[in-house]
Amino acid sequence: MAGPQDPDELRAQVSALDNRVFDLQALLKAGEALHNKTEVAALYELVIAMVRERAVTDQVALLVHDEETRTMGVAQQVGLSEEIVGMRFPADDGILWRLLLAGEPLSIVDTVGQPRFPELFNRYGLEALGGVIWIPMVISGRVVGVLSVGVPKRVLTDADRWFLGALARQAAGAISRSRLYTSIASARKDLNRSLHNLSMLFDVTRALGAVSDLTALLKLILNRAIGAVDAEKGSLMLLDESSDELVIRVVQGLPDPEVERRINEGEIQCRRFKRGEGVAGKVLESRTTHRVGDVGIDEDFKDRESSHVQSILCVPLEVDDEVIGVINITNRREGGVFAAEDESILEALANQAAVAIARTRLYEAAITDGLTGLYIRRFVMHRLQKEVRRSRRYDTPLSIVMCDIDHFKRVNDTYGHPAGDAVIIAVAKAIRTALRQDVDVAGRYGGEEFLLLLPQTGSEGARKVAERLRAAIEETRVDVGDGHILQVTMSFGVTQLGESDQASAESVLKRADDALYESKDNGRNRVSVGAVDEPH
Fold this sequence. Notes:
Elements: H1 7-35, H2 40-55, E1 60-66, E2 71-78, E3 88-90, H3 95-102, E4 106-107, H4 118-124, E5 133-139, E6 142-149, H5 158-186, H6 191-208, H7 214-228, E7 231-240, E8 245-252, H8 257-264, E9 273-274, H9 278-286, E10 290-292, H10 304-307, E11 312-319, E12 322-332, H11 340-367, H12 377-394, E13 398-405, H13 408-415, H14 417-434, E14 441-444, E15 449-455, H15 459-474, E16 477-479, E17 485-487, E18 490-496, H16 505-521, E19 527-529
Parallel strand pairs: 18-19
Antiparallel strand pairs: 1-2, 1-6, 2-3, 4-5, 5-6, 7-8, 7-12, 8-9, 10-11, 11-12, 13-15, 13-18, 14-15, 16-17
Helix pairs in contact: 1-5, 1-6, 1-11, 2-5, 5-6, 5-11, 6-7, 6-11, 7-11, 13-14, 14-15
């Protein structure tokens, strides 16, 4: 086993994780604010204000790329002369443009303050921008614009540059969508549908911030993506970093609802896609959207005959310059093929969705036990306090169950710790299966001890849940290698939160623990129910 980790190193890792979580949450809130600005001038002003706050500078200019004229022009500024508004330079395919396409913040002046592209700066008077750092605003391989940042009042850290780059990508999505809004507004025949889609994007941004369960979040994203382009069905894939393959996590719109449910709950494992394989693999590899009007003549699309797919729109989910997954949307409900408008809408949605997914993954990693996939003790105790308050407020029952694997030390001593881990994993799987997915809470309380919270459940109902779980675990057989198959049993202690003002999270926890020890003292592999702390 590895030795104990250095406390200073551990604190530094925790601090770095805390800072990254804070930055992701700040980016999510920034995205909500940006997506609530539909008027382009107000959007530019908000972007500049956010950049000024993080970069701590008085001078910021926002330049926007005009794809028709292939020029970059100053749209708005602060701290500079009004005369620079409208200043333009060509978006030539040279070194500078390649650097902008990379999407990373870059120093536009050298160590002595001279422009790194003197000919371009002199020819178009770009020194007047006062910029020392340029932050490209890039989405789906397209440069939407550039933020020219003046001299910061403090040295920017790597975290600052990462945050500013991510913020610029948020701004790119918001600006792109704002342009789309303006374009749609001019096309009267599509006005109603376009306004609905844009409103949906705003709603999605707010909704994403309220969902902390990853599977629920993925379902929400896919549902809104399908509705945004009025499609028949779709799937959302995430990248499995261990195998570097795309894995289907959720689906919607399948002809068989039971198959759809089993896929979404992980009971059916779907085909995986490697980089460059199929449409989704091509999107993963290229980091760009792929739109197929007729899959019958597209070489990248697999399973043409069995999939019942006519057209497909596949959009990357990208965070910090890495694709973490793709959204696949198939078949327009009214027929026909997906258009550039649909592509733009989904890219804007994916821009926000990817940040929400990354945030939720990070949050889940922080509160989830790595071996079992159940919640860690600290989080379960936090939820216990919350459920106690909720039970008191709404006068609903709350029961808790303490359970412990019988003779677990004997397993470790006889077969080794890997065998013990296998037993714990099998027990955790049985616990997840036995509990209500969106109501009950299960956590790993100690090494081989687990704590279950059963809201809106009295002690008798909790006893039945514990008894079913006890029986299921008794039937469990765990293969620990070398031909050894172990039978597992558990002991349970059940109690209900009492009505007394003296009852608390701590007291109800102690009564459950006492009930657990009663089961242990009476021969193990049984359920004992502790007395409820009633008022005198």
